[in-house]
Structure formats: structure tokens, C-alpha cells
Design brief:
The protein is α+β, with helices and mostly antiparallel strands and about 950 residues long. It folds into six domains: about 240 residues, no CATH class; about 70 residues; about 120 residues, no CATH class; about 130 residues, Glucose Oxidase, domain 1 (3-Layer(bba) Sandwich); about 160 residues, ATP-grasp fold, A domain (Dna Ligase, domain 1); about 130 residues, ATP-grasp fold, B domain (D-amino Acid Aminotransferase, Chain A, domain 1, 2-Layer Sandwich), CATH 3.30.470. It contains 33 helices and 29 strands. A hairpin with a 2-residue loop joins strand 27 and strand 28. Helix 10 packs antiparallel against helix 11 and helix 16 packs antiparallel against helix 17. The chain is globular, with a radius of gyration of 31 Å. The protein starts with 10 loop residues before the first strand and ends in a 5-residue tail after the last strand. This is PEP/pyruvate-binding domain-containing protein. Keywords: Signal. It holds the Pfam family PPDK_N. It comes from Winogradskyella maritima.
Length: about 950
């Protein structure tokens, strides 16, 4: 075996996928259907594959003289072609593979993950592409597959870096790739129960129990059900029940401590981890104390994770990790038996589950270390304060979110790929979560949430669903509209401004909606979150179980509210109170509308400007606030702000005075006539929808016309000479960012964050010049128009300027808000960072921290697997990463505190409001901080001060003591 070398295993470049002869999703689906009905599936013929590389017919075995060989199926040409064109591997035969090719590290282990997903599809769809091919005798040999699997892991486990960087993926692969007579028995149990419930509907209640709260008591329940219903079952159904019972008996068989001891004895290295496992076996062979047993299993799982690379041989490492999976499986079958009766015992269980989450790879070791103290708020006293209890609750909720995020980060890309042609693939993520401790952890956290809600009167009222303790408000506000529950990829969903949406994750370019709830929060300072906060759009986080429970409410008109304290109400229209109904009468009368100020705008500036020549006082006059504030920052922080040039409002306006092709009028006249006609339509009684449709149609035409507009010769000469003088290089020799910068952004009442176009790392001269027109035109896209139309009285007076700055290929980047968004403390900092460029602003699952003058609290680790870098050749290059180390280091935190202090002190002198918080975009390159943007942080004060929202938020005494011996 060749030694595995994964240099730069933490970060590796993703190659571009060729689209040559690529099959469409329709074609792939047709091919899948063909394989399902074929007695050989994707296979062609049985062959001998010899050690010397030759292939022989079935009756002509490989001679011993050339090293022998193995026998298995070859693949149809269509299956081989699919591998080349679409990188899809159906009906994988392990023994036919070379280890490195199967691992597929250069494609983020895509082929390995496909193998796992294929096994899942086979388990839920009677073999999937092998529905008939699974009976093709000799297609594969189980002993060859198992031998290959063992060799694969012995090869893979030589690499310490792979183990440390991909611990979760490694343990999952060990469950799916045969290597030790093993199988993923829990997945098989779920698949068999699902098939039975679909075939015999009365079994559905038990199936739901097996999926949602599996425990050993399910086995006698299934046996009893089978006994009572046997006379009504067909022969095939009886066989299926007997197979399920056999699987469940295997699944719930007690752990074989003798076998475990034999495995420990066979470990060649006798170190502290070996001793710890041996002591556990000695102490707990006959214990019936589930809490003690679970706690010690958690410690063992954690010890194995921490100590596995201290074992020199990959053989020992494989034994150890297999023991880890055995112990996890045992714990999963027993955890439902641990039913805490007191608050103390419930908090102990949560601490144990957190340790198990670390030991099984659902969270990283550094993440556990960062929050361990927050979980251990239980002192030797008999009481705990409400504040400390809420800290434990919020931390425990976070761990469940991080755990499910780990599953998604590893498998979402391959699941999304398969879901395009095989919808059943979407269930894979849920299956992986259910086969982990995250399922029981989520239930336990909900139990604590319900207890805390009762103790503090902070109760959610979300329909009649269970597990409401997992729901928490992120942004205050209220709304009424049709409820839309999106269980899947949201990016292709056409949203409506008057509907309320529940997403697994918010779309990165979300258009205005009435309200949102999300399973994947993203991060607190993404553009979507900031816009929602700005407009008072109610926003809450919920669990995936909550989302599924709310599917039955899809399509109903509902009332939705989030209080300032974070409790959530969701009810049908019929259940609304008189007070709640009156909210919407008032809203129509007092809707806050903002006028974009144009009285001081200067359109006489028609030459390109050096960013050094502007400051904050020029915002809204010569250019937008991005350029004006960055010019201000350049004066304050000359070493941490790049050079820049500005295309002011006047240049845009001068170009808009040109004739618009085919219209007989200027671009500017066309724009103003569009809004004038829209106003006339409103006065004549036209519906909002028809007025909006008219505007969007005209603005789309304007958008396309501006993109194809001729740039004035004098402007072309000006921008080229400005490039040389400001950046020291001519256009086409330095990559730059083009950032839209309008006069509607960063008003006191409206942020406008992320509405218009930013172009990344453009090098080519023609692309830069065309980019100028694209950025101008972006002010007239549907998304930009809808957000500002919701708030602005004169949207026709939106003027775009453009800020052009040289690219900085940062290692990581993000956003800082100079206040604690969740804590409400004006002296705190909320920071969200992702690797690479453009971090955190587009809703990535970013590393989010609350930084105070003394502390640095992890609110969420990153779960964004991909990121972009900015090569000197222009464009972007995609990379992937792992999560086994934090993004920000201690030196970065110190730099952030220093820059925040200076921003507060210097910007306060420029602002009428000394308490103004700021939204700062910046990044680090080789630990040097670079500032890219600063803008006022805008919150919706109307939503925060709403009498109704205050009325539904309970008054909580954070210092109130609760006895740890309290019964649940």
C-alpha cells in the first residue's frame, strides 16, 4: 500500500468540473430508472481482474503465477461514461478501486460520500439502482469488499492530519464501508420500519416512534404488533416484519464486554487511553445506573478522539475507532432510558451529551473547550440563577445546531447534487442526524427549554407543536400572511413580500418577506439578517423537527410575532385577538416611509475622484457612504485601508442623459416616466400587484439597456489615467473590486446592506469597464427595487456611485457590529468571520463571537465548507476547509478590540448620535487587519418599542434562584 499523503489537508483547491458531454438531470433520472429495471443494474458482465492488470472471462481465472486476482462485475459503458461526464458513481464495487481514487480528496471526498449516500438509497428503495441487480450473482464478493475496506482504512489511518481534520467523516465512513463484519444496523432498522409503514399503514405510529425516539422498548412493541396483526398480513409483509425484528434484536443486543475486553487486549500500545477503556469495562459490566454509564462512555469517546493519533499503528487506530462506534451505538440504544427527574440530573445529562458530541465528531474539540465553562454553571450550591440557567440552555441549543451543521457541512453538497435527479436523497441528512446523539440531545434541550420557559414565563406559543423549547426569537417584529414551509433548497423559491417563510436556511439573496424562521440561522450580521433587523421583520430560529411539524400548517394565513425577549407566537388567523387584528389597521395608517435626500447631491462632479479626496461629509453629495466613509477611514487608518478611486453620482447621471435605444428619450426620462406612470396607476385604483408588475417590467428593460450602454469617451480616458495615478498600475494589471455605492444606503432609518452589486477581483480591462455598467444597472434589479420600494417614497432618486479598490487576498474576512446584538450591550462587539474573501455577509454559517472588554465568547463556529480566494490573475478560486481549528486567533481578537475602540472614538466626532453603532467589514491577511467598509448599524426602533411586542415579553428576574433539586 502506498502511504497516504494529503499535504494541505486543511485546505485544498477544488478543480473546475468539466461540462463536456454532461448529462442533464432528466437524462440521469432516466438512466437510474433503466438500471432499476435491469437484472444487472449498472453492471455489464462478471470478469476476473488479475493482479497484473489483465482482465479475463469468468471461466478463465487469473493464474497464481501472475499473483491471482478477484472476480466481480464490470460496468456498463453508460455507467463508466457517467463517471467521466458527471462525476457520479452508481453501484460502486469497492474491490475494483484504487484507494486514493475512491477517497477523492481533490473533490472534497465526493466519491466516498457518494458511496455512503448510495448505501442509504439502497436501504430505503429496495436496492435503488440495484433493485434487480442486487440479485446478480457474483457481481461482488462480500469477503473481497470487506478485505478491501480493511486495507483502505489501514492505509487512510496512517495520516494524522486526515484524522484530525475529518474526524466526523472518518467515523461515518467506518459505519458504512465493510471492514470488520460490520454494518450500519441502525440505518437498516429505520429503513425497514419505513418500508413496512408505507406498505402497511397501521404500523405508522410505531414507525414514527422508532424514527423519533428509538429505545429498547420498541422491540417488544413491534413483536406485539406483529403478533396481533399477523392474520391480516401477506406472506411478504410477514417476512418483512420478521426481518425487522431480527434487525432490532441485533440493534438492541447488550454490549459484549468480553468482546470489548478482547479488543482492548489486542491493542499493541498500552497507554493512558487503553487503561481508561479497560477500567471502564471493569467498572460498568453490571451497572444499571444509566447516568453514570453514559457519563463514562462520553469520557471514553472523548479520550479515544483525543488519543487515537498517539497510537503508532493504523491497526490499533482502526480497532480504537471501531470501539468508539460500538460504544456510541450502545449509548444511542440506551439514552432514552435516562429520564431525568430533577433539574440537577437534566443539567448533568446535557453536560454528558455535549461530551459525547465532541467524542463522536459532531463538534470540534476546540469548540467544546470554548463552551465547557458555560455548560458547567452548576456549582456546589443547591441553587442556580435564571441567568446561569439561560446560559446553559442557549449553549446547549447551540451545540445541537452545531452538530446538525456538521452533518450538513459534510454531506449537503452531495445530497443537493443527487436530489436534483433522485428526491429520496434529501432524507439522508435527516437519517444521519437521527443516527447520532444529536437526536436525543435535541429532545433533552427542548425539555430544559420547556422548564426554563415555565420558570420564567417565557413561553413560546407556536401552534400546537411539540419541542417548542428549541425555538428562539432573533429579531423582534410581527406579521400576518400566508405561511410557506420550505423543506429543501430555498434558492429557487420565488418569495412574496406578504408571506411568512420557514426555511432550512435563508436564501443568500432573499427578497423582502413578511417574516422568516430558519433552522440554519446563518449568522447574526449577514446582509439578510441586517435587512430583516432594519425593517422590523420578525425572525426566529427553530429545529428541523419543528419545521417538519409545521409542514401541516403550510398555506394557512397566520399571525407571527417575536418579542424583544425572544419568545415567539405563531397562530392561525382565526385565533388572533382583537389587539392583534388592530395592529394591521394601524400599520396601514402609520407605515414609516423615508425620503432619499437629494437636496445636497452634486451632479456637477463628472470626473473620477481619488478616494483620499473625500470624507464622511461627502456621503450622499458626491458619492455613497461606502466611498465617503472609506475615505474617512483612509485618513484615520492609512496603513489599514487600501487606495481607492470613485466614480461619483455625476458621471452616472451624465450617462443617463444619453438617448436610450428604441425609446426616443433619455435613460433618465424613461426612469422617471416609469415612476410617474406607476403613481398615476395607483391614483386610478390599480392593484399593488399590477403596479409593481408594470414597474418591474420597465426596470428590467432599463437594467438591460444600461448594461449595454456606451460609455463616454471622456470617461474612458479619465478612468484609465486615474487607475495609473492612484494604483500605480494601468487598468488590466491589477485586480480590483467594484462596489455599488448608492445614496439610499446607510440612511439613519435604512441600511440597504447588500442590495446592489459588488464585483470581485476583476483584472481584465473590458471586464472592469463592463462591470461599471453592470454595477450601475444593479440598482434596478427586482431584489434591489423591492427592498427599497418597501421603505422609500422617492425610489426614482436613487443614484449609484462606484467605489473601486484593489483586491486584498485575505485569509479570512467578516463583519463587526460595534454593539452586542444579542446582549444589547453597547460596549460589546458582535463579530462574524468566514475564511477567504467576502466572509459572513452572504449568510454563510460563520464563526460568530461576542467580544467584550475582557471576554471572548463563541456564539457559533463556522460550518461553511467552501470559500473563495482572490488570485492575482483575477476572478475567484474556490477552496474547501475543515473546522478543527478556529478562524480568529488571540492576536486577531486584540486587533479587533483596538480597531473598534478607535472607530467608536473617531466616528463619534463625525456623528450627531454619540451612541451610534457601526457595521464594519474587514479582513486579515497574514494577521494584518485590513478595513474595507464602515456604515452606521441600523435597527428598527419601531419594532423594538412596539407596545404589543413589549406586552408579550415577560418580565424576567435574571437573579432569581431556582433549586437544582426541583422536579421537572
Amino acid at each position: 500500500m502506498k502511504y497516504l499523503v494529503l499535504s494541505l489537508a486543511l485546505l485544498f483547491c477544488m478543480p473546475e468540473t468539466t461540462a463536456q458531454n454532461k448529462l442533464s438531470n432528466t437524462q440521469i433520472k432516466a438512466l437510474v430508472d433503466t438500471y432499476k429495471s435491469d437484472i444487472r443494474g449498472p453492471y455489464y458482465r462478471i470478469k476476473w481482474f488479475c493482479e497484473d492488470g489483465t482482465i479475463r472471462d469468468p471461466k478463465d481465472p487469473c493464474p497464481d503465477a501472475i499473483g491471482g486476482g478477484i472476480q466481480h462485475a464490470s460496468f456498463k459503458q453508460s455507467a463508466l461514461d457517467l463517471r467521466k461526464s458527471n462525476h457520479l458513481f452508481f453501484g460502486e464495487i469497492l474491490a475494483s478501486n484504487e484507494e486514493r481514487a475512491f477517497l477523492d480528496a481533490e473533490n472534497n471526498y465526493d466519491r466516498l460520500k457518494q458511496y455512503q449516500l448510495n448505501k442509504y438509497l439502497a436501504s430505503v428503495d429496495d436496492g435503488w439502482v440495484l433493485q434487480k441487480g442486487q440479485y446478480y450473482r457474483g457481481a461482488l464478493q462480500s469477503e473481497d469488499e470487506e478485505a478491501w475496506g480493511k486495507d483502505f482504512f489501514l492505509w487512510l489511518l496512517k495520516d494524522d492530519t486526515f484524522i484530525e481534520n475529518n474526524f466526523y467523516l472518518l467515523r461515518q465512513a467506518l459505519k458504512d464501508i465493510p471492514h470488520n463484519g460490520d454494518s450500519n444496523i441502525a440505518q437498516l432498522m429505520r429503513s425497514q420500519s419505513k418500508s413496512l409503514s408505507e406498505d402497511y399503514e397501521p404500523f405508522m405510529d410505531l414507525r414514527i416512534k422508532i424514527h423519533g425516539q428509538p429505545e429498547e422498548a420498541d422491540l417488544p412493541a413491534v413483536k406485539e404488533f406483529y403478533k396481533k396483526n399477523a392474520s391480516k398480513l401477506s406472506k411478504a409483509q410477514k417476512e418483512d416484519f420478521e426481518a425487522l425484528i431480527e434487525t432490532m434484536e441485533t440493534n438492541y443486543a447488550p454490549i459484549d464486554f468480553n468482546d470489548l475486553q478482547n479488543q482492548v487486549n489486542s491493542l499493541r500500545a498500552k497507554n493512558e487511553t487503553t487503561k481508561q477503556i479497560g477500567q471502564f469495562i471493569k467498572d460498568y459490566q453490571s451497572t444499571e445506573n444509566m447516568s453514570q454509564m453514559a457519563s463514562h462512555v462520553g469520557d471514553i469517546l472523548s479520550a479515544i478522539r483525543d488519543g487515537v493519533t498517539s497510537y503508532p499503528s493504523s491497526r490499533d487506530r482502526l480497532l480504537l475507532l471501531d470501539m468508539s462506534n460500538q460504544l456510541e451505538h450502545y449509548l444511542l440504544t440506551k439514552m432514552q432510558e435516562w429520564k431525568p427527574e430533577t433539574l440537577q440530573n437534566l443539567l448533568t445529562k446535557i453536560g454528558t451529551l455535549a461530551c459525547v458530541s465532541k467524542g463522536t465528531g459532531l463538534i470540534e474539540t476546540w469548540e467544546y473547550d470554548a463552551i465547557e465553562a458555560q455548560l458547567n454553571k452548576v456549582s456546589d450550591d443547591k441553587d442556580i440563577t435564571v441567568e446561569d440557567l439561560n446560559t446553559v440552555l442557549n449553549t446547549a441549543r447551540s451545540i445541537v445546531e452545531w452538530s446538525t451543521g456538521m452533518v450538513k457541512a459534510n454531506y449537503q453538497e452531495v445530497v443537493d447534487h443527487y436530489s436534483e435527479f433522485e428526491p429520496m436523497a434529501y432524507g439522508y441528512i435527516d437519517d444521519r442526524v437521527r443516527s447520532s446523539i444529536a437526536l436525543n440531545f435535541g429532545e433533552t434541550v427542548s425539555q430544559l427549554g420547556a422548564y426554563v420557559a415555565k420558570a420564567t414565563n417565557l413561553n413560546n406559543a407556536v401552534m400546537d407543536i411539540e419541542g417548542q423549547g428549541a425555538i428562539r426569537g432573533l429579531n423582534p417584529g410581527y406579521a400576518k400572511g400566508e405561511l410557506v414551509v420550505v423543506d429543501g433548497n430555498p434558492d429557487n423559491i420565488e418569495v412574496s413580500t406578504n408571506k411568512i417563510y420557514i426555511f432550512q436556511r435563508p436564501p443568500h439573496d432573499l427578497k423582502p418577506v413578511a417574516g422568516i424562521m430558519t433552522v440554519s440561522e446563518g449568522n447574526l450580521v449577514s446582509h439578510v439578517q441586517l435587512l430583516a433587523r432594519n425593517l422590523g421583520i420578525p425572525n426566529a430560529a427553530l429545529s428541523y423537527e419543528n419545521l417538519k411539524d409545521l409542514k401541516k400548517q403550510d398555506g394557512k394565513t397566520v399571525f407571527y410575532a417575536v418579542s424583544n425577549k425572544g419568545n415567539v407566537i405563531l397562530k392561525t388567523e382565526d385565533d388572533m385577538t382583537k389587539t392583534e387584528n388592530k395592529l394591521f389597521e394601524k400599520q396601514e395608517k402609520s407605515k414609516a416611509i423615508i425620503e432619499v435626500p437629494v437636496d445636497q447631491i452634486r451632479l456637477d462632479q463628472t470626473s473620477v475622484m481619488n478616494m483620499r479626496d473625500v470624507d464622511a461629509s461627502d456621503s450622499g453629495k458626491l458619492c455613497g457612504p461606502k466611498a465617503a466613509n472609506l475615505g474617512e477611514l483612509k485618513k484615520l487608518f492609512p496603513e489599514q485601508v487600501v487606495e481607492g478611486l470613485i466614480i461619483p453620482f455625476g458621471i452616472f447621471r451624465a450617462h443617463m442623459d444619453q438617448q436610450m435605444p428604441g425609446e426616443g428619450k433619455s435613460y433618465w426620462a424613461y426612469l422617471n416616466e416609469t415612476f410617474k406612470t406607476a403613481d398615476a396607476m395607483k391614483k386610478q385604483g390599480s392593484s399593488e400587484a399590477s403596479v409593481e408588475a408594470y414597474q418591474l417590467k420597465n426596470l428590467d428593460k432599463l437594467h438591460k439597456a444600461i448594461v449595454n450602454m456606451d460609455l463616454k469617451p471622456e470617461f474612458l480616458s479619465d478612468i484609465k489615467s486615474s487607475f495609473r495615478s492612484i494604483f500605480g498600475k494601468s487598468m488590466g494589471n491589477i485586480p480590483v473590486f467594484l462596489r455599488s455605492d448608492t445614496n439610499m444606503e446607510d440612511l439613519k432609518e435604512f441600511t440597504g446592506a447588500g442590495l446592489n452589486l459588488t464585483l470581485f477581483n476583476i483584472l481584465d480591462e473590458n471586464e472592469i469597464l463592463n462591470g461599471v455598467k453592470r454595477v450601475w444597472a444593479s440598482a434596478y434589479t427586482e431584489r434591489s427595487f423591492k427592498w427599497r420600494q418597501k421603505y422609500l417614497s422617492n425610489p426614482e432618486n436613487v443614484f449609484p456611485s462606484i467605489l473601486i479598490i484593489p483586491s486584498v487576498d485575505v485569509d479570512y474576512s467578516g463583519v463587526m457590529i460595534t454593539k452586542g446584538i444579542n446582549s444589547g450591550n453597547d460596549q460589546d462587539l458582535t463579530v462574524a468571520f468566514s475564511r477567504g474573501a467576502g466572509g459572513a455577509v452572504d449568510g454563510q454559517s460563520a464563526e460568530t463571537r461576542l467580544i467584550t472588554s475582557k471576554d471572548d465568547m463563541l456564539l457559533a463556529p463556522a460550518r461553511q465548507v467552501d470559500y473563495i480566494r482572490l488570485p492575482a490573475s483575477g476572478g475567484t478560486k474556490r477552496y474547501v476547509t475543515t473546522f478543527n481549528s478556529p478562524i480568529l486567533n488571540d492576536d486577531n481578537i486584540k486587533e479587533i478590540r483596538k480597531i473598534a475602540k478607535k472607530v467608536r472614538s473617531t466616528m463619534a466626532d463625525k456623528s450627531d448620535d454619540s451612541g451610534q453603532a457601526y457595521d464594519v467589514e474587514f479582513g486579515f491577511k497574514d494577521d494584518k487587519l485590513w478595513l474595507f467598509q464602515i456604515r452606521p448599524f441600523v435597527e428598527n426602533k419601531q419594532a423594538k418599542s412596539s407596545e404589543y411586542l413589549n406586552s408579550i415579553a415577560p418580565k424576567i428576574d435574571s437573579n432569581k434562584n431556582i433549586k437544582l433539586t426541583s422536579a421537572l
